[in-house]
Amino acid sequence: SAVISQKPSRDICQRGTSLTIQCQVDSQVTMMFWYRQQPGQSLTLIATANQGSEATYESGFVIDKFPISRPNLTFSTLTVSNMSPEDSSIYLCSVRKGGTVEAFFGQGTRLTVV
Amino acid sequence: GENVEQHPSTLSVQEGDSAVIKCTYSDSASNYFPWYKQELGKGPQLIIDIRSNVGEKKDQRIAVTLNKTAKHFSLHITETQPEDSAVYFCAADSNSGYALNFGKGTSLLVTP
CB-based contacts of A8: which residues, under 8 Å, 6+ apart? Predict the structure, then answer.
């Protein structure tokens, strides 16, 4: 498995501001993903964070709104930009190690936009 | 893309009874089917998974079955306990084989 730490665990933000969420893994991983989980809903993939290159975004998510960095094999950030109340969700970091199929999740960041 | 349907959305059982959650998927190329348990305020935790080359896998009180022909898989929890109460998500790997597509979740309540 992998130990995944997300920061912050929760935050309340003003609309129009931006929040950067950090994901730190205790070992090198091949794949890192960011998911959104709206209240009471399932998990939706935002993007795949690629090490050393631009993230790969899913339909409905754009880089200007959700810029992602992945400077190395153990760390990634997701920024939620120009926030509105509709961005209130849990944001989850997920990782997969090379040669394995299992995916593990961080504890999530609970974001409330007011 | 892959579409994963999960039923039921809520399930209430008495302690000691069994619970079954069912999922169907659309992409016949999917090969990996994990199940996650999410407790309140926590991230999803992988509890069991199955690959397409087997039909059943068991780990103590939980088991998963897979029918590739019918494209459905199920989670079985026996001798349920109150601590089994949580939201359970099924998932299937995507076309790229990297990310997962999730079902909508089942809220399981085990009453003493």
Answer: A21, A109
